[in-house]
Every structure is written in structure tokens, then in C-alpha cells.
User: Which sequence fits this backbone?
């Protein structure tokens, strides 16, 4: 037995276990990367307490499973609040940003990934996927995977791609697209180098052509074949708004869900971002096949895409997780804040009973785990991965919310985490990152964000 890490005296321990138990004065015993025991502090086995290397007291905190982010574009933290893209819908928004993103460098990918992860970790996230689909100026997915490993976050790196440029009828400019053969070759290389299929894996690779309007039919189909051959998941954007549906009907003569089905893009190893406009037949198909959805309420509101039918999806058995989406379409990547917006947006669309606070938290934990194809995260129980976060509810933002501290997490202002444990290691303590110096990271990020913007404004004079 290695030295144990014990968390105890949490005001409430939210387990998300099969019985959805919430335990007053809760405690958790962590042994290496795994949870060994969870229950009431009074019932802590003395033998385990005696073997503790560290005991952390969590009076006044809610302790819960780490939140799981199922959709992001971390490089976009360099292009927040860009004036030309502030008030546009999806297709115009993309067109305004593609030229900026074409100037990204490997250093920018690294620093933006670390910065986005720091933000996520401080908001309660312990596992994230990231969908990177442009590789200009020598950038590679390896840059983001290596950056992630310095942060200690559990990471599903999605190898995105775009292969249909403007001259071929797609949306992105030709300079940011790759050809199908090199995308598939690089995908295979990345899986062989980085993908860990094992329990408690910190790194997985996902194949993720960007969207039906930026890649070929053949690349969608061949990516699915390769993913199944290698046992990795598939991810893309689907049915995001009305224009997206119109494009699908015009180019392919079918709905996005029908297109996905035809190309092998349904099943428990597939998840699609947004699905705001998934129709009834699409919802039934996803439910039947266990195809997952990454719900991104802030992004959907910012781009005025609409209200995704999350209640109908869940009733049909569709696995639903939460995604903050890229920082250019949701400029505030706060996972607990995203759960709050999921609850509020569901109510705007479908009434006050459409989503409870606990349901929002379940989507943000268990839901995300299911969507990513994992049964080792999302709940606090023996033999689950030791990914836990604690929020201190003794501040002014939660004053008076003593009736129900768990619901307060979602109803009140989104708190930052006080403590975060990922794979058994303390990564945030006292509200601060333990292993990473934030100030120099942010300084680098500021410099690079300006460089990127200037490079795009003066493309012929910039060095890159
Ligand atoms: Zn996205």
C-alpha cells in the first residue's frame, strides 16, 4: 500500500455513484491513481487513516467528481473577443477567424493549450478533450499533447482536419486545408505514438475531421474505418445551426444525422458537438446507437445557433456531456459555469422543470465520461480514477444558500475550485495551481496573442 491521500469532513460528498448518494461530512481515501474508499468521515477505517501520507480537511466544501469537458478548441484562447467575430453567426464567424488561425505556430499551440487547461482546471475540470483541426506553420497535435502532459490533466486529444477548401466548395480558405491521405497517415502515427486504451489513461487520441462542411465524404468514411481498426473514438461538429442543415441538404441531399449514419459515424465510440438542430429521427438514431452529444450551451447562445433538445435526447437514451467549446465562441471557459448555463438554457426553451441543478452536474460528470467512452471517471466510488474537485461555499457568492449546497453550485455564481485532484495527484490547492506558475504562462500567452493578431493584419511583413 502506497501512502494514502485522505480528504475528509466535506460538508457534502456528491458521489454520482449508481445510487447518486450525497453523503454529509464525507470522506474519500485515495491510493495512487485510484479511489479506495468513500463514505462518511465518522466511518473512515482507522487502518486507512493510519496509513495517510496527507489528510486534507474540507469543512465548508462540496466535494464531487471532477468535471469532464467534451468539446473545446484550446488554441482559440489566443483569439478571444476578436472585434470582427463578436457579433456574427457560425459561418461568418468562422470566415472571419480562419485567416487569423492560419498564422498559428507550434509555440502558440503549446502555450494556448496550457493556458486553456489552467482555466479549465481552476473551474473544476479534470478531464478534457480538445479538438485541434488546423496545423499551420509546422504545428502538430503532438504540441498540444506535450503541453497537456505538463499540466497533469486527463486529456483526449482529437486529431481534427479540414480537407475541402473554398475552391472546392468548402468553407475554409485553401491555405488551411490538408489532403485526405496525409491526414489519415498522421492520424495513424498519432494513435501509435500517444493513444493509451488502458484504465486510468491520461492520454487518448480521437479522430475528428472538423465538420461535414470542411472535409470530404471519403475522409469521414476512412476516418471511421481507421478509428474502428485502432479502437479509438470519433468526434466532429454536427447539426450546429440552420445553415449547417441547409448545407447538408443541398450538398448531400440528407440531414446531418442521415449523413453521419451513412458514413459510419454513429455508435458508442462516436460523439458529435452541438446537435442543436438534431431532428426527431436523428435523436432516435443516436439513442438507439448510443451516439454521444457534446452540449455547448454558451457557444450556442453566443452564435445564436439555438437551443439543443437535451431533454428529448436524454429521454431517448442519448449520452450527453458538456462542452465549453472554443474560447472564440465562448470567451469564458468555466466548466461549472457551463453547467449553470445548460440548466438555464434548458429552462428558457422548455420550462422550469426542463433541467434540475443535479441533472446539470450529472451531465457535467457522468455524462461527459460516457460520451468520451470511459467507465473509470465521472463518479466517486472504489476503483474509480481519483479525479475529484472541491468548491468552498463559504464566500459571499453562496451566502444564504445553506439549504442545499449541491444545488447552490449551479444556481449561484460559478465558483472556482479550491482543491483539484487528478489521477490521485493534488493539482490545485487553496485555489492555486500547484505545479504551474500562472503569471509567466499568461505573460507568454499575452505576447503570442498580440503576435498572432499582428501577423494576420500584416501577413507580408510578419516573420512566420
Ligand atoms: Zn467547436
Assistant:
Amino acid at each position: 500500500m502506497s501512502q494514502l491521500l485522505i480528504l475528509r469532513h466535506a460538508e457534502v460528498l456528491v458521489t454520482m455513484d449508481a445510487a447518486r448518494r450525497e453523503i454529509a461530512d464525507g470522506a474519500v481515501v485515495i491510493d495512487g491513481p485510484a479511489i479506495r474508499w468513500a463514505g462518511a468521515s465518522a466511518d473512515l477505517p482507522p487502518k486507512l487513516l493510519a496509513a495517510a501520507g496527507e489528510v486534507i480537511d474540507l469543512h465548508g466544501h462540496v466535494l464531487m467528481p471532477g468535471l469532464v469537458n467534451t468539446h473545446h478548441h484550446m488554441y482559440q484562447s489566443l483569439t478571444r473577443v476578436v472585434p470582427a467575430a463578436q457579433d456574427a453567426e457560425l459561418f461568418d464567424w468562422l470566415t472571419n477567424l480562419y485567416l487569423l488561425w492560419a498564422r498559428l505556430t507550434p509555440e502558440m499551440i503549446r502555450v494556448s493549450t496550457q493556458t486553456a487547461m489552467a482555466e479549465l482546471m481552476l473551474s473544476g475540470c479534470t478531464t478534457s478533450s480538445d479538438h485541434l483541426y488546423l496545423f499551420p506553420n509546422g504545428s502538430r497535435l503532438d504540441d498540444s499533447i506535450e503541453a497537456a502532459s505538463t499540466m497533469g490533466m486527463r486529456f483526449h486529444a482529437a486529431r481534427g482536419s479540414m480537407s475541402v477548401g473554398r475552391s472546392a466548395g468548402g468553407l475554409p480558405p485553401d491555405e488551411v486545408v490538408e489532403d485526405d491521405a496525409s491526414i489519415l497517415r498522421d492520424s495513424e502515427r498519432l494513435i501509435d505514438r500517444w493513444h493509451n486504451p488502458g484504465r486510468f489513461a491520461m492520454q487518448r487520441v480521437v479522430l475528428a475531421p472538423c465538420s461535414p462542411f470542411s472535409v470530404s465524404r471519403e475522409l469521414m468514411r476512412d476516418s471511421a474505418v481507421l478509428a474502428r481498426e485502432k479502437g479509438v473514438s470519433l468526434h466532429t461538429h454536427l447539426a450546429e445551426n440552420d445553415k449547417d442543415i441547409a448545407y447538408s441538404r443541398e450538398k448531400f441531399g440528407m440531414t446531418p444525422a442521415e449523413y453521419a449514419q451513412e458514413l459510419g459515424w454513429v455508435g458508442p465510440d462516436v460523439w458529435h458537438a452541438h446537435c442543436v438542430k438534431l431532428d426527431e429521427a436523428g435523436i432516435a438514431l443516436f439513442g438507439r446507437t448510443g451516439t454521444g452529444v457534446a452540449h455547448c450551451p454558451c457557444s450556442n447562445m453566443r452564435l445564436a445557433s439555438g437551443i439543443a433538445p437535451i431533454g428529448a435526447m436524454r429521454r431517448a437514451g442519448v449520452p450527453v456531456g458538456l462542452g465549453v467549446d472554443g474560447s472564440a465562441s465562448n470567451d469564458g471557459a468555466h466548466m461549472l459555469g457551463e453547467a449553470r448555463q445548460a440548466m438555464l438554457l434548458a429552462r428558457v426553451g422548455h420550462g422550469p422543470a426542463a433541467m434540475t441543478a443535479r441533472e446539470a452536474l450529472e451531465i457535467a460528470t457522468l455524462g461527459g465520461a460516457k460520451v468520451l467512452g470511459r467507465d473509470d471517471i465521472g463518479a466517486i466510488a472504489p476503483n474509480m480514477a481519483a479525479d475529484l474537485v472541491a468548491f468552498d461555499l463559504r464566500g459571499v457568492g453562496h451566502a444564504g444558500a445553506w439549504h442545499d449546497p449541491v444545488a447552490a453550485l449551479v444556481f449561484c455564481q460559478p465558483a472556482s475550485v479550491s482543491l483539484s485532484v487528478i489521477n490521485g495527484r493534488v493539482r490545485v490547492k487553496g485555489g492555486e495551481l500547484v505545479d504551474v506558475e500562472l503569471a509567466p504562462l499568461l505573460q507568454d500567452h499575452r505576447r503570442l496573442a498580440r503576435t498572432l493578431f499582428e501577423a494576420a493584419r500584416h501577413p507580408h511583413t510578419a516573420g512566420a
Remarks:
- The chain has a mean pLDDT of 95.
- The chain has 15 helices and 17 strands.
